[in-house]
Amino acid sequence: MANQVSFDRWAVFEQAFRQTAKPEHAAGLDDLKRKLVQYFCGNGAGSSGHEVDITLTPAQSKNGAGYRFVFVLYMVRGRPVIHYRGCPDLERAKDAATQRPPTPRRRNPRNPRKSQKPQWPKMAGLLLLLLGAVSLWAFSLGGGDEMEAATEPTREPPAGFPAFTVEANVTELTDTGYLKLVNRTRSAATPTDPAQLVEVWEDIPVRAIYITLRETAATAVIALFAAAEQAGHTDLFVASGFRSEDEQQNIYQNAVDRAYVLPPGHSEHQLGLAVDILSSGNQSTGGMAGTPEAAWLAEHAPAFGLLLSYPYEKQNITGVAYEPWHFRYVGRVHAWYMGRQNFVLEEYINYLQRVGGTTTTFDGRTYYILYQQPEGGTILVPEGLDFQVSSANTGGYIVTAWR
Asked: What is the model's pTM?
């Protein structure tokens, strides 16, 4: 089938791409064409009307702006035709050069004819009052309201733990970053190494061909999509994965509502562990709320190590509006435990700080999860057990051991 593919308006795309891309990226047009053919026809992902983007990041463009080039697959007399639909970013720039742009207006999603002022501050205040009346929890880690600080953790593990007796220098340990807290008040600090990122377009439907994730997260998302397909949710696709600092800056600067967007350096997407999942029937993020797909993902993602980062009822803790499409890889045992306790990551880390650690049985293994503050640059790790270490981005580390 792939050798029968034809392209429509490819010359128009070439001209637009060469106009915007740096020379070293514009030289790869033949490779782009090959990948488009393989994506649409090589792995069965394509069906008539299916769209995919080629994204040119700010770092790859001549003028430091991001560009999205949209392609759509059509079947013409039984043969596939890949049609270049256009570049919305170039079209907007052309419009802006010829006329004064209109003043943006916020629309009421329940009544599109009626403009409204941002409701996030009122909603956050109301949720804070409601949750404060029924909850005894207090958090200092949140991206939202600052509350009572957690108690100072001790170095010794809780009763019932195996011996954590080996002193290890934190600079010599492999930091997975799976539990690294990144929000409005805590930055990612160190950038993600591009060598840790893998493309996922050959395995699952994606909006843009060059969406990447860290390998462990990618494996989890691929497995989640396979389970979703078996459950009848066959129209899911990945809309966003890893973002560079420049990409996040561009999104933040152009955001209509920053209740949903974090500033550069503060987004989980920059860790390569977060993914936005939409469905072809609800291709805008706002369309996912209340859908069967969103409910299925929230319920089943923890089994694959992925957790909904921004639930509706936790907005005052996370500092981010409800995003039923945004999932973060934290590891299977942690996602399962947080899901069972109804924790977001801010709450989970605060809980571990307060109690020192916890033990649980999951998938036939016993896990020992210990929060430690380094002393002299070292933490204690177990002797004779497998373990992982993740910075919590709070000054402390979380050691996860199992047997």
From this structure: 0.69
Question: CA of 11: how far to CAs of 15, 18, 66, in Å?
Answer: 6, 11, 21
Which amino acids are annotated catalytic? 323
CA distance 195 to 197: 6
- Coil vs helix vs strand at 313: helix
Structure tokens at 387: 């373990």
CA 7 to chain centre: 32
Across 106-123, average pLDDT: 41
Question: Residue 172 carries which DSSP code?
Answer: G
Answer for the pair 349, 394: CB distance below 8 angstroms, yes or no: yes
**Per-residue pLDDT reduced to its tens digit, 146-205:** 334 444 555 677 877 888 989 999 999 999 999 999 999 999 888 899 899 999 999 999
Residue 391 structural domain: 151-179+340-403
33-66: pLDDT as tens digits: 888 888 877 654 455 567 788 888 888 888 888 8
3-state class of 257 per DSSP?
coil
CB 139 within 8 A of CB 147: yes
The answer to whether 186 and 401 are in contact (CB under 8 A) is: no
Handedness of CA 354, 298, 327, 65 (dihedral sign): negative
Check whether residue 236 and residue 127 sit in a common domain. yes
Q: E-strand spans in 262-320? A: 274-279, 306-308
Residues 58 and 23 in one domain: yes
